[in-house]
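Milestone 3.1: sequence recovery, worked example.
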């Protein structure tokens, strides 16, 4: 038995912050940001919160799946930027959308958070404890950023994405999962709790880690699925930096046509990156029934993971 994604939804805040606007805040340029990262603009939450964005994404995922909030058994919300620690964001989403019987909790694995939450849902549903889950990645990173640090403030954006998962139809669903953590290198990307240190990053170290670890992890997940890299139709990867995506593509010998990119419009949205990309890629008709898809993320912790699935809808 395995699980498949049967509904997807996402939401981006309305306010767009362009690279030009950042030129007025720190010593940077549109050209530098585009060349080094591929990012042109990002969204900033304003009045929206991790919870309000997540609730909207969940409602859209439920609608897409043709399900009601009352049907939901489990809500797993991945975030590293909660406005409140208690109650957890997932419980707040539960009350906003009216998912009366759902068991709800948050999970923090930074940019790998959505993937780790999906893996957790997989384990729960396979165990028979729950029949379905809403898996959400939601971030308001603009609150955690030091807007005077040009090394980080140009990278991040806000948004949320969610999927509804349930037992897979024959021939569809998750085939393999690989996860990893390396707490020994945790200091290269850190952020304090509320009121503490903003996001601090040794960009080059994170870059090196991502371009080495992610291809290895994808290769292992594809191997465990009994497939070869050439048999994969799409690679939906964490959107941190276009150069990282290109380097991963090069190492795996995968053409960029198979690696969708949206970071130019949204920046790095941490745990929200993969589900938002999934939603956008699906909505523009790029994902087709029966295709083999890899999801892969990496981030603070350090954490990383990949999963291989067959798209069933
Ligand atoms: O979700 C996971 C989280 N993070 C990541 O995946 C980030 C991974 N790392 C990266 O994407 C890249 O390392 C960055 C985009 C953060 C930085 O790019 P880089 O090519 O590694 O640049 P660098 O840090 O080596 O800096 C090169 C130069 C430095 O100046 P000097 O020392 O050569 O004079 C920096 O001070 O660029 C300077 N610099 C900037 N200049 C203009 C750094 N940030 C900026 C900026 N605008 N925003």
């Amino acid at each position: 038995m395995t699980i498949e994604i049967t509904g997807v939804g996402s939401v981006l805040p309305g306010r767009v912050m362009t690279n030009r606007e950042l030129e007025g805040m720190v010593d940077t340029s549109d050209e530098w940001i585009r060349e080094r990262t591929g990012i042109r603009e990002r969204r900033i939450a304003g009045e929206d919160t991790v919870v309000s964005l997540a609730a909207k994404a969940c409602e859209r995922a439920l609608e897409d799946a043709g399900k009601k909030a009352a049907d939901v058994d489990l809500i797993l919300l991945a975030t590293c930027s909660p406005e409140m620690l208690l109650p957890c964001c997932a419980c707040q989403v539960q009350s906003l959308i009216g998912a009366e019987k759902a068991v709800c909790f948050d999970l923090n694995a930074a940019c790998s958070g959505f993937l780790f939450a999906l893996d957790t849902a997989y384990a729960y549903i396979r165990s028979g404890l729950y029949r379905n889950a809403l898996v959400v990645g939601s971030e308001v990173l603009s609150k955690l950023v030091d807007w005077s640090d040009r090394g980080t403030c140009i990278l991040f954006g806000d948004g949320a994405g969610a999927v509804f998962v349930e037992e897979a139809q024959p021939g569809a669903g998750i085939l393999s999962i690989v996860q990893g953590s390396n707490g020994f290198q945790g200091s290269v990307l850190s952020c304090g709790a509320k009121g503490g240190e903003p996001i601090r990053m040794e960009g080059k170290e994170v870059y090196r880690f991502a371009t080495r670890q992610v291809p290895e992890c994808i290769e292992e997940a594809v191997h465990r699925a009994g497939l070869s890299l050439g048999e994969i139709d799409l690679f939906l990867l964490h959107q941190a930096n276009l150069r990282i995506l290109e380097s991963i593509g090069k190492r795996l010998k995968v053409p960029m046509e198979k690696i969708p990119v949206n970071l130019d419009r949204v920046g790095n949205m941490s745990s929200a990156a993969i589900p938002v990309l999934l939603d956008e890629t699906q909505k523009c008709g790029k994902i087709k029934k029966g295709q083999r898809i890899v999801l892969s993320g990496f981030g603070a912790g350090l954490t990383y993971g990949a999963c291989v699935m067959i798209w069933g809808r």
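The chain has a mean pLDDT of 97. The pocket of oxa(dethia)-CoA is lined by residues 28, 32-33, 36-37, 111, 150-151, 154, 189, 201, 203-204, 206-207, 210, 240-241, 244, 268, 299 (CB under 6 Å).
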